[in-house]
Amino acid sequence: MGAFQRKQRRWVIDLRVRLALVVVLMGANLLGSAGVFVFATWVIPEGPLEDPEFVRGTNMLLFAVYLIVALPVGTFVGARRFQLWQHGTDEEQRRRERRFVLYGPLRLVIVQSVLWFVAAVLFTSFNLAYSPRLALRIGETILLGGVVTCALTYLLAERVLRRTAERVLRDVPMRRRRLPGIVARSLVFWALGSAVPVFGLILAGVAVFLFDDMTTTQLAIVLIAVGAVAIGGGFLVTVGATRAVADPVNGVIRAMAQVEEGDLTVTVPVYDGTEVGQLQSGFNTMMSGLRERERIRDLFGRHVGHEVAAAAAAAGEVRLGGERRQVAVLFVDIVGSTGLAASREPEEVVQVLNRFFAVVVGTVEEHGGWINKFEGDAALAVFGAPAPLADPAGSALAAARNLAARLAERVPEVGLGIGVSAGEVVAGNVGDVRRYEYTVIGDPVNEAARLTDVAKTTDGRVVAAAAAVELASATEARRWELGDAVTLRGRTQPTRMATPVIPASRPRAPRRAVTERSA
Length: 519
What we know:
alpha+beta; 61% helix
C-alpha cells in the first residue's frame, strides 16, 4: 500500500430510503413546477405583448429545458448530502453520520432553494426583454412556488428519514440540536397552508391597485385559483402538521399504557431532533431508571425476602427496633455436613446445598413463610412476620411435614432435622442505620433450633413443640401426636414434643429414646 490512501464515500442511508428520497424530491419538484407552470401560463395576466404566443412558447421551451437539467442535478447533488467520507475514528464517523441524517432534510432544502432561486432569476431576466411587468409576475410566482416546494420537501424528507434517524439516535443521549423545532415547524406549516396563498392574493391586489391592468374576469380567475390552492393545500398541510406532532406523542401515550399494565421493557423509537425527540428520549431514560429500580428491588427482595423489601419500601424511613408478634419458627439443618464437605469437591457441595435450599425456599413460601436467614447448611424460616398470617403455627407445621417429604425425595443424599416452635417474639430491624437487617428474636427461635437437634435422631426427622400444635388450627393439629417432655440443650424448662402422625399403612420405625441433652 502506498503512503496515501484514497478516501472513499459511503452511504449513511440504505437503498430503500434513497429510492424513497428520490421519489420525494422528484414528486415535490414536479408538483411545484406544474403549479408554477399553470399559474404562469393560464392564470397570471400577460399584459400588453407584441406576440403573446411567441412569448408563451419560448417560456415553455425554457421551462422544459430547465426542468430536464435541474431535476437530475438537484437529485444528484441532494444524494451527495448523504454520502460520508470514511476517515477518522469510529466514534467520529458515527457522530458525522448522525449529523448527516438529522440535518439531511435541511441540506436537501438548501439544494432545492438554490435551484428555485436560479430559476426565478433566469425567467425574470429572460422575460425582461418582452415585458418588465410579466417578468416580475413570473419571478414572484416562481419564488412562491419554490417556497412551497422546499417546505414540502423538508416535511416529506423528514418523514422518510425517520427509521434511519431512529437507528443513528439509538443509545445516544438526546440533547437539543440546532434544528427547526416545533415552533419553526408550525411556522412552515402555516407558510404552506396560509401565508403563501394569501401573499399571492395580496400581490394580485397590489398589481390591480398600482397598474389597473386586470379585468374583472382575470382577477376572479386569480382569486378562484389561489383560493382553491389554499383550501386544498391547507387541508393537506393541517393533516401533515397534526401527524408530525401527534405520531410521536401517541407513541409515548401507547407506551405509557403498556407501563401501566406492568410492562417495563417498553421503549419508544427516537427519530426526531426537536423537542419531540427529547420527549421520546426522556421517556426511554425514565423507563431505564424504572427497570434499574425494579432490578435493584428484585435483588433486594432476593437477599432479604420480598416481604421485608416491601415493608422497607412502604416504611419510607429506617427505624431500628421492633414490635411483639405472634409467630411460628421453622429451623432446618443438614446432618453430617462436615463429612459431606470432606468427601466431596467444593463445587459439588455447593450444588447439593443449592438443591437443598431450593426445596426449602419453595416449600416455605408456598405456605406463606419467609426465609429469615441461611446459616451455612441450615435455614431459619418465620411464619407471621413481617407479613401477618391467619394461622402461623398451622402454616409452619404443614410446611415442616411437606418439607421433610420433599427433601427425602429430591435430595436423598443428605440427612436432615426440622424443628418447629411458636410463640411471641420481637420482630424488627436490628443493627445500625448504616447496616441493619430484619430479624426475629425470642425464645421460639432458640427452641426451634434445639428441636432440630432432636429431630436428627428421630423417625421422620421432624419435631415440633407441643405449644405450636396447640396454637395451630384443629385441622393441622390432628396431623400431629404429642410425645415426651424433655429438657433441651441450653434450656431449664422441659419442652413437650410432637411429631407428625404416621399413616397406618406405613409401619413406624423404632424410635430412639430422647434423653436430656447437655451442652
